[in-house]
Design brief:
Beta-lactamase; alpha+beta; elongated; 4 domains; 24 helices; Penicillin binding protein transpeptidase fold; five-stranded antiparallel β-sheet
Length: about 750
Amino acid sequence: MSNKNGYRNIYKLGFIFIFLVLPLASLMLSVVTDIFIHSIQIPKKLLSDIEGTVSVLDNSGKVVKQISSDTARIQLPVKLNEMGPHLPTVTIALEDHRFNNHDGIDRKAIIGAAIRNLKHRNQLSGASTITQQTIKLATKRTKRSIENKISETLLAMKLERIWSKNQILEAYLNQLDYGNRRLGPESAAQTYFGKNASELTLGESIFLAGLPQSPTNFNPWSRWKNAHKKYLRSIDRLEELNIINSSTSKRLIDFPPTIIKSTPPSIANDYVNLIPKEIIKSCKGKKLPTFLDLSLQEHADSILKKRLEILNRHLIDNAAMVVIDNSNGAVLAVSSVSRKTQGAEEDYNAALVWRHAGSTLKPFIYLLGIEEGSLNAASLLPDTQDSVPNKFHAYEPENFNRSFNGPTRLRDALACSLNIPAVYALSITGARAGFDYLTRFGFDTKETIDQLGAGFVLGNRKIRLIDIAAAYSNLSRSGIKLSPKFTKDQSSSPERIASKNAVDIITDILCDNDARSEAFGINSPLHFSDHRVAVKTGTSSSFRDAWTVGYNRDYTVAVWFGNLSGKTMNGTLTTESAAPAWNEMMTHLIKKRHARPLELPNLKLRKIDSITGLLPSRHTKQTINEFFTEETVPVKNSSSFYDKSGNLILDKNYTKWCLSNHNHLNAKVRKNLSQKLNIISPSDGSIFIIDTNIPRDQQTIPLLSNEKHTQWYLNGSPIKDDYFQLVPGIHTIEAAWNGKRGISKIKVR
């Protein structure tokens, strides 16, 4: 009986252990496991977008450059359905054939691995599922340890609870290392087969699926035999798992895939280098659409290379071109070409290099004067050796041809790019005001007005080609500023930075073939007989820089020629270098892109005296038509410039000129004019309009007389400064010097 009772107790204990203790322990283990799984955090890398390679696209969607990650790896994340029909299936079969049936851990594989580890006295080898490998790749753990293994197991189980199998597989494949610094199937497919992952054949998919197991050992470029052997073993395994049949297996063995060596595209680097770095960084491995017009880019490269070869004897090594779409400020092409094939110069983007501006900034100084009402297109500016104001100290500008034209209307001065009238205009607007005005158009510099002096208007200020192109593009929109854009997700809010009427006058002058013919001839590269296009050239001192920039309604083209080394160009004129290249591109845009010509300004057209710029008088010998804003239409005739006999009489700024052989007008200096105190700015009767879009403290007019030491009064009260900030109302400006007085009455509204 005792034996029977003993057996009964054993049965009872066994029953309790099997049916009560074990389930309870299993339940407690499950609860504890659930608690751990709930508490742990999924690696942040899995929860955020993959910061892979940025694929830069042109405006047609073609990849022109791939910008690798900080680790210099090419990674092109794609969705699972973009990896083709074979690669995901093959990868599961070879790496984790029970993937679709487990909860993150493969218990059968673990038991098998444990047996192998005990047999061979290894530790923790094998049995990792795709889910576990996904965790491992995300955490970048390389050290094998019990702690890491447990962590990966728990994280894998959690990932299986919150993600679908497709999500896990997609994350896994996009992180896999396929060798040669290619991560993910898309970059691998492009590198080894020259196609997208979606186009992979079964054989190509099998070949790729084997590489991540040992990317270095199976490198198809350097260790083809090893890679091929792995390919054959993978085929055997797939046949064993009934993924493929024997006939398919034989075909795959007989016709293995052809491996190529494809490098990432790298086209239009000069353009890509201008894309803001923060935009590229924020793209996070996605495709980045740009405004790059690849055909236009290639045409620009061709034009510059051809022109450099033509100018070979002139010792010019570098050239650059920028093309902008005026409708939206989009940059379509950026070309930087070097004749040198070795050295640092080849890698420089000349569109970003700071160079002396030459005469390209002159239009903006004249624009300021017209906008504030102190100048108009017919304003008479002295082009003489005596006309540069004393406030510019020892600065003595001279014209390119070292001649003096005497009285010159603003239109002719700008069209022929005369230096002395430009400096004189700067004395009217104020050098500091002119310098600050340029910043509205996007010009920036570390140099100050005190460092540069008045010479900045003639080109001692440094600019970049991309900035001058953007500034002239703003002129094409009649003073509406749009920052240059490179990518389609860049935003740019339109901003009026200059008066439309004032800009339209400057544009009309820059279109005037007749006005510039005296300086450039009638057959220069700047001349378009049947298409209104505005254009300006510039040449820096010692022939170090040659510029040409111009625009029609649709496009702005800016060109620079020079030497990044700083050496001179052997006396090369702009009309021989930058201008022909500009002409060729503009002609292409007109004929091939149907670019539209600029329209005539919708302004008042008045007949004026061709010499004085005032209304005709009985002594006027020739008249011309000129555009004026409503505020600057002349009200005086030219009679005060002629004596009774019809001889031209000028002020003291022309004293030396009248006595020189440059005096082609037989003009004389009015003897008593120097005894009179004249207010040059603001002129009597001027009307100024406050622009609400411009900060009030930036809207000033200079106070300028024909004497150096002048005391100024505003409405009877003395003024310390030599400028007047615009205030609505009618004002009396008074100048006093040496007992003499001058009065100018103006209106501000």
